[in-house]
Design brief:
The protein is of the alpha+beta class and 225 residues long. It has a domain of 148 residues. 31% of the residues lie in helices and 18% in strands. It has five helices and ten strands; from the N terminus they run αβββααβββαββββα. The protein has a four-stranded antiparallel sheet, with no helix packed on it.
Length: 225
């Protein structure tokens, strides 16, 4: 293999490694213009963006503890807005309990195809009947203030009931809208700015460059000998 071919192969390997890292399922997004911090994470699997703070209604001072009725939660999430320079991110909603193909919702445990079920079981490594806080998945550290039960945007044929999901045990079911639970904001699409590349991207790029350097030195040594 000549040096030209080697460099092409090496470059392709490096590019594929970087692309793989850049397409990690949860990618950090800046919403307020503060470089080096992420206020949201983009889920590349479902093409939605989650707030990093899972109880932002409390953190922002909107509500004393974040527990709201379903109607209060829908009002809060619709009013949510982040501003970063000329960029305004204000298209937020409650997560859907439907499956990705529009069917369902799935009832009880292991509902991995709803938006919160995908987050719990797939992205954060949750286990049915166990709190998400017991997970050892490193992505769990990306989010803060995860609570026990969250409202969804998916209503039922009974006007008094709506679907919810519980990171406390991975359960998806229905509940009365007048009860008090938490709200986790999500937005369709890729929202925010990737202000700081993922650490994995740097590592993979460096590995690719080192491989290219090794190939060049190896080629040069062979010619000398």
């Amino acid at each position: 293999m000549n040096i030209h071919t080697t460099l092409i192969v090496s470059s392709l390997i490096a590019a594929s490694l970087v692309t793989g890292a850049a397409h990690a399922a949860l990618q950090g997004r800046d919403l307020n213009g503060s470089a080096g911090s992420f206020e949201a994470y983009y889920d590349t699997d479902l093409n939605i963006t989650w707030l990093a703070d899972a109880n932002y209604a409390k953190t922002s001072g909107y509500h004393s503890n974040g527990q709201m009725t379903w109607h209060e939660a829908t009002t809060w999430v619709a009013s949510l807005s982040f501003i970063a320079g000329v960029n305004v991110y204000d298209d937020w909603r409650l997560p859907s309990a439907l499956n990705q193909n529009g069917t369902g919702p799935c009832n009880r445990f292991n509902c991995t195809d709803s938006e919160m079920g995908h987050m719990f079981y797939v992205e954060l490594g949750g286990t049915a009947r166990h709190s998400i806080l017991e997970s050892t998945d490193p992505d769990l550290a990306k989010f803060s203030n995860i609570q026990g039960l969250y409202w969804s945007s998916t209503e039922t044929s009974n006007e008094s009931l709506v679907w919810l999901f519980g990171p406390v045990d991975g359960y998806q079911g229905t509940n009365y809208k007048a009860d008090y639970w938490w709200a986790w904001a999500v937005s369709d699409g890729d929202v925010g700015v990737s202000a700081v590349p993922e650490p994995e991207t740097y590592a993979m790029l460096l590995a690719g460059l080192l491989f290219i350097g090794f190939a060049k030195r190896h080629h040069s040594n062979n010619h000398k000998s």
